[in-house]
TrEMBL record:
Source domain of life: Bacteria
Keywords: Oxidoreductase, Pyruvate, Thiamine pyrophosphate
Co-factor requirement: thiamine diphosphate
UniProt source species: Pueribacillus theae
Protein name: Pyruvate dehydrogenase (Acetyl-transferring) E1 component subunit alpha
Ranges where the Dehydrogenase E1 component domain occurs: 25-323
GO biological process, alphabetically ordered: pyruvate decarboxylation to acetyl-CoA
Oxidoreductase found in the keyword field: yes
One GO MF term: pyruvate dehydrogenase (acetyl-transferring) activity
Length: 334
């Protein structure tokens, strides 16, 4: 049975600069998201958007200071969180939603699920949930075969974890001791279906990994530093050739499955509690203030810088042209 990951964390073991980098990344993710929703309301972005608000600590903590550009990353259905933490430029992400050539797909549009940035190890994937499990085995195997210490981090939701490709992937990762870190973003719901209705393992989703001999644990995904530490240990093991790890990170969506979802299948009191008591950004800020690591002024400065960065990114993405017809044939080999 999966253990609950716990660790005494001394804030003084981190530099102020490193702590602020976690804050900056979480704020960047949240403001990117809020501004994208605003663009939807203005009628500039259409289609479905799956907001990642409420889970910023999970992605920022596991990626910042842990992953290198060349490490591979597969994102989940709220994957802008992970792409931003990995350093994919905001203008390119906005470009994918606006359909302009600034986007990573150079105008084909992508939303969350098709964008790619090969220079940052984000190779792209399909919109079917769980499509990342098998290709994650491929990149991890290639890294091992080539004798590098590159790792593959594979994010997915509790719903994706209920699909069969997870098991093929865990089996291969277990047999070949592949350098994969599986990170399950357990926000309790796949659309309106609760985790308890989807998994035969009743206690923890991470328990699936036991059957494949893969070390696993459950962690509070909204504690950015705990998330950082648990991922760091797993990544270090993978880099040393000590194989895969499965981390189940608990979190919750502040918004519905997609923008427009009435979100009436969850008790509003539960959502309120997560927003008020378990918000990863609010809690991290409070902790740094209480420990006299940072001042209100330090936070305001970052907030302003991020606002500026976001407005600039939107402008760049919006002012880029739509693709010409020839784009249809670019990269087409058959
Ligand atoms: C194979 C497949 N079935 C159904 C869908 C439709 N779909 C999109 S997101 C989603 C739920 C995903 O839930 P989860 O993996 O828990 O991620 P979350 O949305 O909670 O972040 C479903 C069923 C899909 N994209 N692919």
């Amino acid at each position: 049975m999966a253990e609950i990951y716990q660790k005494e964390i001394n804030l003084r073991d981190y530099s102020k600069e490193n702590l602020m980098a976690f804050y900056r990344t979480m704020v960047k993710i949240r403001k990117f998201d809020e501004n994208l929703i605003q663009l939807m309301h203005e009628g500039k972005v259409s289609g479905f958007y799956h907001s990642g608000i409420g889970s910023e600590g999970l992605s920022a903590g596991s990626i910042v200071h842990n992953l290198r550009d060349e490490d591979y990353l597969y994102y989940n259905h709220r994957g802008c969180n992970q792409k931003i933490a990995k350093g994919v430029p905001l203008s390119k992400l906005y470009g994918d939603f606006l359909g302009t050539v600034e986007g990573t797909t150079r105008g084909l549009g992508a939303g969350i699920v098709h964008s790619a940035d090969v220079s940052r190890g984000v190779l792209g994937q399909a919109g079917t949930i769980g499509s990342q499990f098998n290709i994650a085995v491929g990149t991890a195997y290639s890294a091992k075969f080539q004798g590098t210490d590159r790792v593959t981090v594979c994010y997915f939701g509790d719903g994706a974890a209920a699909r069969e490709p997870l098991h093929g992937s865990l089996n291969w990762a277990g047999i070949y001791e592949l350098p994969i870190i599986y990170i399950c973003e357990n926000n309790e719901y796949a659309i309106s279906c609760h985790t308890s209705e989807m998994h035969a393992v009743k206690e923890h989703i991470a328990d699936w990994a036991d059957g494949y001999g893969i070390p696993n644990c459950v962690v509070d995904g909204n504690d950015v530093l705990l998330m950082h530490e648990v991922a760091k240990e797993a990544i270090e093991r993978a880099r040393k050739g000590e194989g895969p790890t499965f981390i189940e990170a608990k979190t919750f969506r502040h918004r519905g499955h997609f923008e427009g979802d009435p979100y009436d299948y969850v008790d509003p009191e539960v959502v309120k509690e997560w927003k008020e008591k378990r918000d990863p950004i609010k809690n991290f800020k409070k902790r740094l203030l209480e420990n006299n690591i940072c001042s209100e002024n330090d936070f305001s400065k970052i907030d302003e810088q991020v606002d500026h960065e976001i407005q600039k990114a939107i402008k760049t993405a919006e002012s880029a042209p739509l693709p010409g017809r020839e784009r249809i044939f670019e990269g087409l080999f058959a």
